[in-house]
Fold this sequence. Notes:
By secondary structure, this protein is mainly alpha-helical. The protein has one domain (about 15-70, about 105-235). About 60% of the residues lie in helices and about 10% in strands. It contains eight helices and five strands. It has helices spanning about 15-40, 50-60, 105-130, 130-150, 165-175, 185-200, 205-210, 220-235; strands at about 65-75, 100-105, 150-155, 160, 215-220. α3 packs antiparallel against α4 (about 130-150), α3 (about 105-130) runs parallel beside α8 (about 220-235) and α4 runs antiparallel to α5.
Amino acid sequence: MNGIFRLSPTGPLPIVAVITLVGLIILVIPLLFLGLIGAAFSRLGFSWIEATVVILLMLLGSFVNIPLWTFQRTRGRTESDTPEVFDAFTGDPVRDERLTTQLSLNLGGAVIPFAVSVYLLYQIQRLAGEMLLLHVGIAIIIVAVVTRVTTTIIPTYGIRAPLLVPAVSSLVLGLLLGGGTGLSAAVVAFAGGTMGTMLGAGVFTLPMIRNSGVSRISLGGAGMFGAVFLCGLLAALIA
Length: 239
């Protein structure tokens, strides 16, 4: 029996070491990730601290939705064709009951990226001239159309924008319209990608919401935030 079961004489030290190591990994990896993204965003003209603050605000703001509007929808079924509303007295399904959908604006996925885009355009337009605004407008339209075509609306869930399509599209447009890498190209990619995604995956899909059975829609929220954030990150890498 002694040859099979052995007790370690080292005591609790290895356990403490393992817990400490795991804690350091949990702490260091997000800080390293944040530092790398902050370094990329700082190439857009922000200081490292300003870039880090912007990223933190986007990440934390992704949990904040600002209510904008509540409108009526006429569909009473879910994706599984199960009625959503039942009569309180008889228990019978109410198939034609007019229901409401709440439209919100996500702080981290819509408001802050839009504000950053406007700030960058204001700063760079004075150096690059009016042509930059034209290039950004073209990028916004193209990204919006591409995103709209590839965005899906899932009943009971909401809008789901593709993760890579808007970011890659805006990156290519930034390189083409901006004349290669550089700050102008990054601004075209950033503004075109973030605004185009919000238009294509958000505003342009609103007419479809009335018949989708979705009760809450957040522009820039869960189904769009990843795409918007990736647009900004890839744009920062070509600055």
